[in-house]
């Protein structure tokens, strides 16, 4: 048996470190666990937590290549966050200048969800419930 227990972290490479750091901390409300600058790579690694749980590693690398990032692109589809009230969350993001797609209904669970994007166009989802 492989013995998987949980998802340990999600790694994200950004094109503009300060812009993405601001987005993930000030807009999404992630807290900084540890920030490291690796001079040999000219790269930052920012460990972030959601509600006290370590979850995201934000990396900066000089000149990262672009990647398709629509929710239906082949590969890792998106990163989803659970919220209690989707309207309140959409209103909050709207107040920060972030546009969400129209709310959809998951036909399997009957739960509501929407997509928005991080500063590099990475698809992020809010899932109510």
Automatic annotation (TrEMBL):
GO molecular function: lactoylglutathione lyase activity; metal ion binding
Class in the EC hierarchy, top level: lyase
SUPFAM superfamilies: Glyoxalase/Bleomycin resistance protein/Dihydroxybiphenyl dioxygenase
Signal peptide span: none
Ranges where the VOC domain occurs: 6-129
Keywords, alphabetical: Lyase, Metal-binding
EC code(s) of this entry: 4.4.1.5
UniProt name for this protein: Lactoylglutathione lyase
Organism, as annotated: Cytophaga hutchinsonii (strain ATCC 33406 / DSM 1761 / CIP 103989 / NBRC 15051 / NCIMB 9469 / D465)
Highest classification ranks of the organism: Bacteria, Pseudomonadati, Bacteroidota, Cytophagia, Cytophagales
Gene expressing this chain: gloA
């Amino acid at each position: 048996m492989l013995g998987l227990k949980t998802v340990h972290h999600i790694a994200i490479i950004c094109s503009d470190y300060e812009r993405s750091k601001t987005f993930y901390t000030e807009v999404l409300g992630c807290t900084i666990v540890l920030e490291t600058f690796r001079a040999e790579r000219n790269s930052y690694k920012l460990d972030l937590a959601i509600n006290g749980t370590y979850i995201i590693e934000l990396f900066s690398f000089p000149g990262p290549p672009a990647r398709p990032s629509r929710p239906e692109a082949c590969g890792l589809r998106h990163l989803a966050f659970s919220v209690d009230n989707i309207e309140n969350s959409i209103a909050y993001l709207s107040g920060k200048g972030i546009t969400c797609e129209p709310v959809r209904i998951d036909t399997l669970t009957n739960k509501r969800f929407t997509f928005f994007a991080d500063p590099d166009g990475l698809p992020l989802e809010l899932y109510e419930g």
